[in-house]
Design goal:
The complex is a heterodimer of chains A (about 325) and B (about 260).
Chain A: E1 2-11, E2 14-24, E3 29-33, H1 40-47, E4 55-60, E5 63-64, E6 75-78, H2 90-100, H3 105-114, H4 130-142, E7 148-152, H5 160-175, E8 179-184, H6 187-191, E9 196-201, E10 204-210, H7 211-216, E11 222-226, H8 230-239, E12 243-246, E13 252-255, H9 259-268, E14 275-279, H10 283-291
Parallel strand pairs in A: 3-8, 3-9, 6-7, 7-8
Antiparallel strand pairs in A: 1-2, 1-4, 4-5, 9-10, 11-13, 11-14, 12-13
Helix pairs in contact in A: 2-3, 3-4
Chain B: H1 8-23, H2 27-52, H3 65-92, H4 94-101, H5 105-140, H6 153-178, H7 181-192, H8 194-198, H9 203-210, H10 214-222, H11 233-257
Helix pairs in contact in B: 1-5, 2-3, 2-5, 3-4, 3-5, 3-6, 3-7, 5-6, 6-7, 6-10, 6-11, 10-11
Classes of the chains: A alpha/beta (about 325), B mainly alpha (about 260).
Chain lengths: ~325, ~260
């Protein structure tokens, strides 16, 4: 269990974390989401005792990190997989960290095997790919078999296979009853792994919810309607109190009236309907809705809209 | 949990083991040690030959001087070893993994100091005694050598070894304070060449301030004929030990106050 209470962290004039309060509970993969610069990494560093909070507290199993005697048995963390001495072999790297917490060579070999690095453990890590470094970082996080695990952007820069591997790993750890906290700026990634979400923007809490609730609460739920007499149908729907937006391709995006009612209305007036598709916002959309106002830097021009026929995520 | 109940001695051993593994699992350790040990031993014989054949002999030749001169090369290499211990961890970001595994940062500093201290002291004594025997072999052929049993010689040689340990500790502290390899080495070199710069000061001041510098203090401690316008050997030894003590103290203060 990770508990963050009224956490504030300022770097000079910049407030990176601004009164953040949340808890991460065991048995779930909890996504820690926010745009780049939202304060995710800073929050994790404070939790790990690396940065001192300006005010507020961050506790792991009711204790401050810097009071833990052998912290690797309590918390395993991967902050930056590339933070390695390139000249050291993977085995020496893991061994040195293991020794600091009284963990033996057998466990070192075990985590290297778990991470799939057994065969390359004798090689200098300078030659490792990013994916191998991520695996190495996870091996280190698992050393003390800790009940709490924290990963900062673990899938950044990974290929599809690596992403799938980490995802399964995180789910297995949570199924074990562990507390798993994973930060990401990519909602689409978290959608498939995390069942709980903590969303922050500009250092403040935006949402602390389940993944399902976040989708349901999104304002972007509508029904796509296609009809040869679209204009006529739009008028009837508007009269019923619906909000109708005509898309560039002639389709109607309808909110305020559910799909069955739209179908009935069209049938009543003998209007043929070629498509009637309830659309729920993707998690990505819900996330953008939430964080849209809290992004520090945004592109000056809006991004071109995706073609309507593009598969939803 | 048994982990939290581990006695202090066990935890100290763990942190030492960690730092020992780190030190000897990178190549830079072997290179700097090689330079620190081989170069001075090789150079000392050359210096001895040059001094023995010097045309002017107004001042009495200190038979330990060649060994000390050549040690100045070792001092640079071993100081770099000290700087690297922290600067590479800060440079790569590895320091966060280190401090996450060992939240007691001063214990990390202490463990690095012990490991590097032991290694540099061993290297220092090895160099001091090895070059002593080589230098005396050269000097003896000119009738200028001294034996190990001569009063003052064993102490001087021990002090030469301590000089390496002292500089390694200063390098370690600088690495922790500056947190950059290049900056740390620059600061170290600056400290070591301070005597040369102070020597340029007007008459009494060069010598007065020079007494406080590392290498001049080391000369006083290790010379068989200490200079009379400097601190006494005992006081110079204090100066020599005060430098690493102050540097490590500053490092210990800063390492806990700054974000990693």
């Amino acid at each position: 269990m990770i508990e963050v209470d009224q956490l504030v962290k300022r770097f000079g004039a910049v407030t990176a974390v601004d009164g953040l309060t949340f808890a991460v509970r065991p048995g779930h993969v909890t996504g820690f989401l926010g745009p780049n610069g939202a304060g995710k990494t800073t929050t994790m560093r404070v939790i790990l005792g690396l940065d001192a909070p300006t005010s507020g507290t961050a506790l792991i199993n009711q204790r401050r990190y810097d009071t833990l005697i052998r912290p690797l048995h309590e918390v395993g963390a991967l902050l930056d997989a590339t933070a390695l001495h390139g000249g050291r072999t993977a085995r020496a790297h893991v061994l040195s960290i293991a020794q600091s917490n009284g963990i033996g060579r057998r466990r070192v070999a075990e985590v290297l095997r778990l991470a799939g690095l057994e065969a390359v453990a004798g090689r200098r890590v300078a030659g490792y790919s990013l994916g191998m470094k991520q695996r190495l970082g996870i091996a280190v996080a698992l050393l003390g078999d800790p009940p709490v695990l924290m990963f900062d952007e673990p899938v950044n820069g990974l290929d599809t296979e690596g992403i799938a591997w980490i995802r399964q790993f995180l789910l297995a750890l949570a199924a074990d009853g562990r507390t798993v906290m994973v930060s990401s700026h990519l909602m689409s990634e978290m959608a498939q792994t995390a069942d709980r979400l903590i969303v922050i923007g500009r250092g403040r809490l935006i949402a602390d919810t389940t993944t399902a609730e976040l989708i349901a609460s999104s304002t972007r739920r509508d029904v796509l309607v296609r009809s040869p007499r679209a204009g006529e149908l739009a008028g009837l729907l508007t009269a019923r109190g619906a909000t109708v937006t005509r898309q560039d391709d002639g389709g109607l995006a309808v909110t305020g009236v559910e799909a069955p009612a739209i179908g009935d209305l069209a049938a009543e007036h003998g209007i043929a309907v070629h498509a009637l598709v309830p659309r729920s916002a993707s998690l990505e959309d819900a996330y953008l809705d939430l964080t849209g106002e809290s992004v520090d830097y945004r592109a000056a021009a809006p991004m071109p809209a995706a073609p309507e026929g593009a598969p939803g995520r | 949990m048994t982990a939290t109940g581990a006695p202090l001695a066990v935890r100290a051993r763990d942190v030492l083991a960690c730092e020992w593994t780190k030190l000897f699992s990178v190549r830079s350790t072997f290179w700097t040690m090689l330079v620190a040990v081989v170069t001075p031993v090789a150079i000392s014989t050359v210096v001895a030959e040059a001094l023995a054949n010097a045309p002017t002999k107004d001042a009495p030749l200190d038979p330990l001087l060649p060994g000390l001169f050549s040690l100045e090369y070792a001092v640079l290499a071993i100081g770099v070893l000290g700087v690297l211990a922290f600067s590479t961890e800060y440079g790569t970001g590895l320091i966060r993994t280190t401090f996450a595994a060992m939240p007691r940062r001063r214990a990390v500093l202490a463990a690095k100091a012990v490991v590097i201290g032991v290694v540099s002291l061993a290297a220092g004594e090895l160099v001091a005694f090895a070059s002593f025997f080589l230098v005396q072999a050269v000097l003896s052929s000119h009738g200028l050598g001294v034996s190990l049993s001569r009063p003052g010689v064993p102490g001087a040689l021990l002090a030469e070894g301590i000089l390496l340990c002292v500089v390694a500790m200063i390098g370690l502290a600088l690495g922790a304070i500056v947190r950059h390899t290049a900056g740390g080495i620059a600061a170290l070199v600056g400290l070591l060449i301070l005597p040369g710069i102070l020597a340029l000061l007007p008459a009494p001041w060069g010598a007065r301030l020079g007494r406080f510098t590392l290498l001049l203090a080391a000369h006083q401690v290790t010379a068989l004929h200490p200079a009379t316008n400097q601190f006494s050997p005992a006081l110079s030894l204090l100066v020599l030990l005060a430098w690493p003590a102050v540097a490590l103290l500053a490092a210990a203060l800063m390492i806990t106050r700054r974000d990693a």
